[in-house]
């Protein structure tokens, strides 16, 4: 008999930005399969998800992988939050995704800032004043430019050991700002993997006495904000071979600016200013290879005969990937599928 440690992870009810919560369940001889992880519950009155007089909320396991930090007997279990009657809780963004056939593929580019609690500034920033202006930090190497690499490398290694589909990492434009990318064939799975990777990142930073700041504009002034660019495709985008179809899909986003911005992360107006590789929050644009547009059409898509994907550059680093995917899917589905696709 082997006792296994299952770390149940869920999103709380804090607004405007939800936080990660987790607790450990000990089970015997766990198979490692998500369908064998039992339902569990928690006190929703302590997470802004239920009143004290009726506080039980349910945890429904939806994604499970090994936990490399708990060698051999540990598992990370991402969960949906349900009401006591089994219906999706109002904070359950995953349940809003209206897609079960995995037609939509998502690649999220998760930017974040490693934060020093002692200085209340990004790692590498002086206690007073600022470092040299941004420019040398993006994809950098060397002391004084790539700061916090030990945390980033450890996070990457743990994610890979856990089987998450991380496709890359890089230092970002502001000192102390980094990015990882995760891809999945399926909207729900992509969201699951981003949330588990965020959990691993927070836990890794703990070891170094650091925290992770997902605010989309952690440093005011002439510094890049942090985003979570959403690369997406469905069968139509992957196979249509039609510039006109791509333009129809892009144009479908324009009348739905509010619906998207509402779920693209808190305080995004501080980031989407029209500066620092962004479009203004109240405007919409699209263009080939245009990083200042709301939606970028990658040059690779064009060179492949208009077969590929699109990138919505508006989601903030603190956005819920479930809600982002849900909004994108709903908009794309308003466009009729071209004949022959």
Automatic annotation (TrEMBL):
Subcellular location, record wording: Cytoplasm
UniProt cross-references to PANTHER family, sorted A to Z: GLUTAMINE SYNTHETASE, GLUTAMINE SYNTHETASE 2 CYTOPLASMIC
Main location: cytoplasm
Broad EC category: ligase
Residues annotated as domain GS beta-grasp: 4-86
Boundaries of every GS catalytic domain copy: 88-341
Protein name: Glutamine synthetase
Subunit field text: Homooctamer and homotetramer.
Gene3D superfamilies the record matches: Glutamine synthetase, N-terminal domain, Glutamine synthetase/guanido kinase, catalytic domain
Signal sequence annotation: none
Pfam families, per database record: Gln-synt_C, Gln-synt_N
Family: Belongs to the glutamine synthetase family.
Record's GO cellular component terms: cytoplasm
Function: Catalyzes the ATP-dependent biosynthesis of glutamine from glutamate and ammonia.
Keywords: ATP-binding, Cytoplasm, Ligase, Nucleotide-binding
Catalytic activity: L-glutamate + NH4(+) + ATP = L-glutamine + ADP + phosphate + H(+)
EC number per UniProt: 6.3.1.2
BP GO annotations: glutamine biosynthetic process
Taxonomy, superkingdom: Bacteria
Single GO MF descriptor: glutamine synthetase activity
């Amino acid at each position: 008999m082997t006792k296994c440690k299952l770390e149940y992870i869920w999103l709380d009810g804090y607004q405007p930005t939800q936080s990660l919560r987790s607790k450990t369940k000990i089970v015997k001889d766990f198979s490692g399969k998500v369908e064998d992880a039992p339902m569990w519950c928690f006190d929703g009155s302590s997470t802004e998800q239920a009143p004290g007089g009726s506080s039980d909320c349910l945890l429904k396991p939806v994604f499970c992988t090994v936990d490399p930090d708990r060698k051999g007997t540990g598992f990370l279990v991402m969960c949906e939050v349900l009401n006591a009657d089994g219906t999706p809780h109002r904070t359950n963004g995953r349940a809003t995704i209206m897609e079960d056939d995995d037609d939509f593929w998502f690649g999220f580019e998760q930017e974040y800032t490693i934060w020093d609690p002692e200085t209340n500034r990004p790692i590498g920033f002086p206690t007073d004043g600022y470092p040299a202006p941004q420019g040398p930090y993006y994809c950098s190497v060397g002391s004084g430019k790539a700061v916090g690499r030990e945390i980033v490398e450890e996070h990457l290694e743990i994610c890979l050991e856990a089987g998450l589909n991380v496709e890359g990492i890089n230092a970002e434009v502001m000192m102390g700002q980094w990015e990882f990318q995760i891809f999945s064939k399926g909207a729900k799975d992509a969201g699951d993997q981003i949330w588990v990777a965020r959990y691993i990142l927070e836990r890794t930073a703990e070891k170094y006495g650091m925290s992770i700041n997902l605010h989309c504009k952690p440093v005011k002034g002439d510094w890049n904000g942090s985003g979570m660019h959403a690369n997406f495709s469905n069968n139509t985008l992957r196979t249509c071979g039609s510039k006109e179809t791509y333009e129809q899909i892009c144009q479908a986003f324009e009348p739905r600016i509010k619906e998207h911005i509402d779920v693209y992360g808190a305080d995004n107006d501080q980031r989407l200013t029209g500066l620092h590789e962004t479009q203004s929050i109240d405007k919409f644009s699209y263009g080939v290879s245009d990083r200042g547009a709301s939606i970028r059409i990658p040059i690779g898509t064009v060179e492949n005969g208009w077969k590929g994907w699109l990138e919505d550059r508006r989601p903030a680093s603190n956005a819920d990937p479930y809600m982002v995917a849900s909004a994108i899917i709903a908009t794309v589905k308003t466009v009729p599928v071209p004949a022959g696709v």
